[in-house]
Design brief:
50% of the residues lie in helices and 13% in strands. With 247 residues, it is an alpha/beta fold. The model has no long low-confidence stretch (mean pLDDT 96).
Length: 247
Amino acid sequence: MLQGVDPNGPSIWNKEDVKKENKELIREITKLQRLLYADGKRSLLIILQGIDAAGKDGTVRAIFSGINPLGCNVFSFKPPTEEELAHDFLWRIHSKVPAKGMIHIFNRSHYEDILVPSVEGYLDQEIIDERFDQINHFEKLITSNGTKILKFYLHISKEEQLDRLTERIENPTKHWKHNDGDWESRKKWDDYMNVYEQLFSRCNDIPWHIVPANRNWVKVNYVAREILHALQEMELSWPGLETERFK
């Protein structure tokens, strides 16, 4: 699946035109987020996955910086704690699913609980196979409760990742992003790509959006258009007066 997507995006796109469109897309998303919160009948879960330095944090900043914080939360799922390991692997995820009216963003998600143990080999394949099915059931459950799920894989090239990881060492303003573990994971690039391909084929009841992410303005355009379309499809409306309060 990834082989058919150029991580640079369409070569004919004009940068200034797309950046102008991005501003309008983000303005519309901001308006509809307020309506989603007021309407209180639906919710939106945005899942961002990608290899280290794919631009997940930057995507959140670019699209959601103007969002009312009352109606939006971002969660990043790191290695599970001792308490989390004492429960099923979806226990910590389920508590972060958005309530009606909310947008929640997963910067890494439950898919890490297949990716990492698959590559590192610390879970049996039988358990991994069960997790594919369990994730599909989990996503079906929350969808049936009125949550729209959007799943994005931010697709960068191996060369682009090298440039970004190197910049984290050479640029003092990005030292805080540096993590030696990212370089160790990079050595297993092909292994991670193989597992991602399994995720795309086995957890695709809710489709994945493969986003060209080498160029940030292209990435933002792809993601913002899908988010705006999802919000528009919800047919949200402003609630009327609760007249009983005035009687």
